Amino acid sequence: MTDNPFRAGLETERTPQPCVFVIFGASGDLTRRKLIPALYNLAVSRLLPPGMTILGFALTESSEDQFRANMREAVAQFSRRKPIDEAVWADFASRLHYVSGKFEVPESYQRLLAKLEKLDKTNGTRGNRIYYLAIPPSAFRAVNDNLSAGGLVSNDADRYTRIIIEKPFGRDLASANALNADLHRVFTESQIFRIDHYLGKETVQNLVALRFGNTIFEPLWNRNHIDHVQVTVAEDIGVEGRGKFYEEAGASRDIVQNHLLQLLMVTAMEPPVAFTADEVRDEKVKVLRALKPILGDDVARLTVRGQYAPGHFAGKPAPAYREEPNVSPTSNVETFVAMRLEIDNWRFAGVPIYIRAGKRLAKRTTEISVHFKHVPHALLKHDRLAATPGETSDGSRVEPDVLAIRIQPDEGIGLRFVAKVPGPTMTLRPVTMDFRYGSTFGGSGPEAYERLILDALLGDPTLFARADEVSAAWRFMTPILEAWEKSPPAGYPNYAAGTWGPAAASDLIERDGRAWRRL
Ligand code: BG6
After folding, report:
1. Is 227 close to ligand 1, i.e. is its CB under 6 Å away?
2. Which of 93, 405, 443, 445 could form a disulfide with 368 if both were Cys (CB 3.0 to 4.6 A apart)?
3. Contact, 507 vs 330, CB < 8 A?
4. Distance between CA 136 and CA 347 in Å, rounded?
């Protein structure tokens, strides 16, 4: 028995085979902040198989000892578990190796291959390989082609090769399809793991548990009971030194096309017939296929974009987006997006889905809220006056019920409903029933990257995006992005850092007689 509920189940059921985990881009930020700390934490949880080996590959010349020292610093700074467990670290460090090379130079891959074959012999990794591409998308093709030409890819029964790819996966439908075609020349779909770290978050997986592990929610999860849904991915940080990347991406490519649409898919999908990779992803992709396209004049009517002006963050002045390093002083890139979506299917027809995402908003919070319909007849009094439709005869209004799934921080689920205020009259007030991860399970659960790396080691792609899923997301987003490009935004910047975005985002929902949740 384990005393850590987050480890229950994982330890006993899931032991991967040893492999060499090759990180392309090993001197980059993602490796330091996420990948190595996640691998180290898997080692602490004893979820890595004996012999498991990690091989860094990057342009920077570095000795293996130097690489180990750098990775130790990364773990000290970014691991969720502190301080470093010296016994685990000593073993983990002995599994860390490094080769320097250039992504586009075939000879580098010959050195990589020689190193891999040597490690197979010493560590018993039996030719099993995972290539993690933590590199700019412009280098994907060179790595893909050189791995293939250099004889570094196999899919025999007795040894596997897998590839994990970070976002951004393309920048529109055509480029994403081209990238998929490139990959499919070398890898089969079952070897490709397109990572979206939101799917590795405990709270996102718990949304599946909430919907399909209980009987009380699913009967209500449809147009008969739901008035509308809101999905918010709000960040209080700015672009954090990633100006160059963000100028290419903007909020729609950085967050909406991937993370936010993933949240929407898990919220709206039909129950799969089994919890297996293809069954789950079949249902998810159907949600995207059912999204009503936003085309022509609807782009201006149903979407809002914004960019932050100077403002305040944590009591200190915060610069405008256009003042961030490596950002053009006349940039028209959006740091905020809001949209009104509709899912044209039997379950959700006519239920508006309001989404918003942005940087430098008032608070870091990601939440999905399901807003149920008003009571059909306002029999009882509410204790707050509201000048909105659906009022009781005395002008008060019964607040509809809301189920709020807090993805992060303050992870949990709250159900807001009305209760009687104690006293001589039948007066109602909203109250909340609340489930909190922290107080229920204690400690901190695994980071998204831990879960996803473990799944890739096990060859389980359920929580990774399939080719058709990525294409469907781009098919929805591309016409919007093209329309935006054709008509540059007027009035940027249009919201102050530290606020909830441009006024147009409030108008988008308020003209339907609804309001964004106060978070
Ligand atoms: C990344 C984006 O994919 O997700 C970042 O590139 C963003 O811009 C980050 O800050 C948010 O992730 P999380 O896990 O902090 O919500």
Report:
1. no
2. 405
3. no
4. 39
